[in-house]
Design goal:
heterodimer; A: mainly alpha; ABC transporter involved in vitamin B12 uptake, BtuC; two-stranded antiparallel sheet; 14 helices; 2 strands; 1% strand; globular; B: alpha/beta; Rossmann fold; 4 domains; 6-stranded mixed sheet; 20 helices; 22 strands; 36% helix
Chain lengths: 354, 557
């Protein structure tokens, strides 16, 4: 007697509509590379490229004289520190599968607010910095709340938030650059070097290590990757999905606030800028980084390599006499190639294994 | 086995659909064995039978999804051999299907849903003639007595209205005296009672206006209330064709399960009722009584106690599970099978009632969320593996360790070495066919994926394991492995609650089985009575009348 029917034409769950309004960002392929020379190559391709590009510009007569100098390295690292830190902030929500477009604007707001509080209100440096970073935390928390508790689309929510903050920055500064009345200690910190490397870089390095630890070496970080893989499954293995996602938005907001303060320290002034100039290179680095080290997953080490790769190449190009447009063109092209390659490799892997 | 009741041929003239000697084979199994079916014009015809009787296959052959291996199909005087019958033939002959998943786009308007089926009326330059479309759809809605504006999004309609819209859409090109035949596949399976009443009433009115309808349903009272004719399938054969009769539910169930079983069913139904009936044979009575465990004074080994649980489709469930017991949950779609498991797991908050779980250390835990339930030793293997259990792009190791992440944490980082060793050991122990624990989860077959999901939970040595359709989409070999694993866990003291639509599985795996009906426990089955046929009869019949039952179920325990 057979009771195993050919299953009903449709077998939906008993009246439980799976409402999952989460954004599924167009992310790169997710099957992790494992074993084999091919996997090894894929994991380290970006690093190898970075070394190759650095070697090329060192040997290239057009750029070699200046490129491979401690001074150039110092300038390069110092200039990229803020982008690197913002890229690290960006990957936090991305690991869970959420975009946060407002992080650039949060950095800009924090920068302008920190400067403004010192300049307009004569607040002490420490307090101004705390308020700047605190605003980042608050906005991150608000974003997180809108996305998790109210289930709004993260793409749209944070885009709206970014536009709103950009407008507020314009209003607060009146479109003027804030130059005067800043505590000189901040600019000093931003311009000083330690062992030939700008101090700002050490801040970024320490935070990168902490974030690497958080994402790769704690149960919480593992949980974030699980949420990014499948939030429904994550909830059913006891991961507090909403709380975790909210936390990533808050952390990302705090880091972006810090980015604003560091940017202020580096430049010594706060411009009325909506922050997109920082955000796009950071997003590009994050996606580039997801093709390396742990291919298919946003990760800290890959992101740092991504930032370095783009900045080394752009610096080399500039020193070789390329025009200013060369930098964004290279930036964009390398991202397209990396994502396409990663998608292709992932798919060929998928075909082989399933 | 009953002798085959020769289908009484209805008067030839008004038969609009006749299927004769339809045979369909899937590999070694004979899904349809010379089945016959005849629909009279202007009637609602019920096609009923237990799981695996061939109802779905018949519909799929009629829709042209499957090609039959033998037999003839006649629609409105036109005849086909099954080899020459395809989806287009069925459509041309006037068969229209509305499946359980209605195939509507909930965000789009009613009119657009119609237009996707029939095409948008367009004017010059390919412009959509919205006014014309809306007018036509409004006329159709009026004709079908659906009180809705064509611009309303389908998602905003009541469930019964949605089904009616799907019906109306399927029949939208029915004009004048052209007669289409409407085939409804389990139209009420996911509808609440009052919604399905509305729907059935509307279907009845269509039939009174001359529409021919064939309906597949598991809900006996519904088909009895709305249908004129009945065809009963069993094991791919037509065992009864009741034309213009008024059968009772009992008659239908007897045909579905075979006369030999009728007595047992009676016995159980009575035993499931308040007081024992003398007509029930003594041994069967005993078997049924054994099914409802007596209350122990100590209750030390009661792992799960559910009292009067309400919420979602659940309407007062009582149950009790002891250490080492494997208990099945049977019931139709919408009976609350999955909801029961999910509520016990803490995913759904119960509206009222209590769920008490005893953790391995013997402490009791009341209502809680998923996390606290897990800490209390509860594990859930959900039904939808891809959607709710898998981390598809993570490795097998990640998929296994996800429930015990904290175990591997040291202040200096995750101990990946230990994690990998444990995962590999579990892969070997559960017979997962994978090169190593570091391959992606998606590279495994369905059966091996399910073993990984089980391993993920069993490494926590749960005191209560909840399994929802544990072997859905799992190959035969893995199925045996999974059964063995579950039995092993039970032998080690884990209580197991299995919800399944595979009645054979429940009979093979479980010590006793609860039959859920309309969100209540309608019957307990154990011992010699635990057979697929018996369960079929119980899940389909409404004899464990909900009105009288809950009180009794509480009392008998």
């Amino acid at each position: 007697m057979s009771v195993t029917d050919t299953p009903p034409l449709q077998s939906p769950g008993p009246g439980e509509p799976g409402t999952d309004d989460r954004t599924t960002p167009p992310r790169v392929s997710r099957s992790g590379a494992h074993g084999g020379a091919k996997g090894l190559l894929e994991r380290h391709a970006l690093l190898l490229l970075l070394v190759a590009v650095a070697a090329f510009f060192s040997l290239n007569p057009a750029s070699g004289d200046i490129f491979f100098t401690q001074q150039n390295a110092s300038v390069l690292l110092g200039n990229q520190a803020t982008v690197a830190l913002l890229a690290l902030a960006v990957i936090l929500p991305l690991v869970c599968g959420y975009f946060d477009f407002s992080l650039g604007a949060i950095a800009a707001s924090s920068s302008v607010l920190t400067a403004g509080l010192m300049s307009f209100n004569d607040l002490p440096l420490g307090l101004a910095m705390v308020v700047g970073i605190g605003v980042g935390v608050l906005i991150g928390g608000l974003n997180g709340l809108l996305v998790t508790r109210f289930g709004l689309n993260s793409f749209v929510t944070t885009l709206g938030m970014a536009t709103l903050l950009g407008g507020l920055v314009q209003w607060y500064t009146g479109g003027q650059t804030i130059l005067n009345g800043l505590d000189p200690r901040l600019a000093q910190f931003g311009s000083k070097t330690l062992l030939g490397i700008p101090q700002v870089v050490y801040v970024v390095a320490v935070i990168a290590v902490l974030l690497w630890y958080l994402l790769a070496q704690t149960p919480f970080g593992r949980g974030l990757y699980a949420i990014g893989s499948n939030p429904r499954s994550a909830a059913l293995v006891g991961i507090r999905v909403q709380r975790s996602v909210w936390t990533t938005f808050v952390l990302a907001g705090a880091l972006s606030g810090l980015v604003g303060v560091l940017a202020l320290a580096r430049s010594g002034s706060a411009t009325a800028d909506p922050g997109t100039g920082l955000l796009f290179p950071a997003l590009a680095a994050a996606f580039l980084g997801a093709t390396a080290v742990r291919p298919g997953f946003f990760n800290v080490v890959g992101t740092i390599i991504g930032v370095l790769f783009v900045s080394v190449a752009v610096s080399g190009l500039t020193l070789s006499g390329a025009s200013t447009w060369a930098s964004p063109v290279f930036n964009g092209a390398s991202l397209l190639v990396a994502v396409a390659l990663s998608h292709y490799l992932g798919r060929s892997r998928g075909m082989r294994t399933t | 086995m009953t002798p085959r009741t020769p289908p009484t041929a209805p008067p030839g003239s008004d038969v609009v659909l006749r299927v004769s000697a339809l045979t369909k084979r899937f590999g070694a199994t004979l899904a349809l064995d010379e089945a016959d079916l005849a629909l009279r014009h202007g009637t609602v015809h019920a096609l009923v039978g237990g799981n695996g009787c061939g109802k779905s296959t018949t519909i799929k052959v009629l829709a042209g999804v499957h090609r039959g291996d033998g037999g003839r199909i006649e629609v409105a005087g036109q005849a086909w051999d099954v080899d020459s019958y395809d989806p287009r033939a069925g459509r041309a002959a006037g068969l229209r299907f509305v499946h359980q998943d209605l195939g509507l786009f909930p965000e789009l308007s009613i009119a657009e849903n119609f237009a996707f089926d029939a095409g948008y009326p367009t004017g010059p330059g390919g412009r959509v003639l919205w006014r014309g479309l809306h007018r036509r759809v409004a006329e159709l809605l009026t004709a079908y007595e659906i009180d809705a504006d064509p611009r309303t999004p389908v998602g905003a309609l009541r469930p019964a209205q949605r089904t009616l819209v799907a019906i109306c859409r399927a029949l939208q090109d029915q004009e004048g005296d052209e007669q289409l035949i409407l085939v409804l596949d389990e139209p009420t399976a996911t509808l609440p009672q009052h919604e399905s009443d509305v729907l059935l009433e509307a279907v009845r009115r269509r039939a009174d206006n001359g529409q021919t309808v064939m309906m597949v349903s598991h809900r006996m009272p519904e088909v009895l209330s709305v249908c004129d004719d009945f065809t009963v399938f069993r094991d791919g054969r037509t065992v009864a064709a009741l034309v213009g009769e008024r059968p009772t539910e009992h008659d239908l169930v007897r045909h579905m399960t075979g006369a030999a079983l009728a007595r047992t069913i009676d016995a159980n139904v009575v035993a499931g009722g308040l007081d024992g009936d003398d007509s029930a044979p003594a041994d069967e009575q005993a078997a049924t009584t054994r099914a409802t465990p007596a209350t122990d004074a100590d209750g030390e080994d009661v792992v799960l106690q559910v009292r009067d649980l309400h919420g979602g489709p659940l309407r007062g469930v009582d149950l009790e599970l002891r250490r080492g017991e494997i208990v099945g949950v049977a019931g139709l779609v919408g009976s609350g099978r999955s909801s029961l498991l999910r509520t016990v797991f803490g995913e759904h908050r119960p509206a009222s009632g209590s769920v008490t779980v005893r953790d391995p250390a013997g402490r009791l835990h009341g209502n809680g969320d998923v996390r606290t339930r897990m800490d209390a030793g509860v594990a859930l293997v959900p039904e939808d593996r891809a959607g709710e259990a898998a981390f598809a792009d993570l490795t097998v190791r990640d998929n296994i360790s996800v429930t015990v992440r904290r175990r591997y944490w040291r202040p200096w980082g995750m101990s990946v070495g230990r994690e990998r060793a444990d995962a590999n050991a579990l892969v070997t122990r559960h017979g997962v066919r994978a090169a190593s624990a570091d391959v992606p989860f998606t590279s495994l077959s369905g059966g091996n994926q399910q073993k990984v999901v089980l391993a993920r939970w069993l490494q926590r040595t749960p005191s209560l394991l909840l399994l929802d359709e544990p072997t859905q989409g799992v190959d035969v070999m893995s199925r045996a492995d999974i059964y063995r694993t579950v039995q092993e866990a039970a032998a080690n003291g884990c209580a197991v609650l299995v919800a399944s639509s595979d009645l054979l599985e429940l009979c093979a795996l479980c010590d006793r089985v609860l039959v859920l009906q309309d969100g209540r426990v309608a019957a307990h089955v154990a011992g010699a009575q635990l057979t697929p046929d018996h369960l079929t009869a119980l899940t389909q019949s409404t004899a464990g009348a909900p009105a009288a039952d809950p009180a009794h179920q509480g009392a008998s325990r």
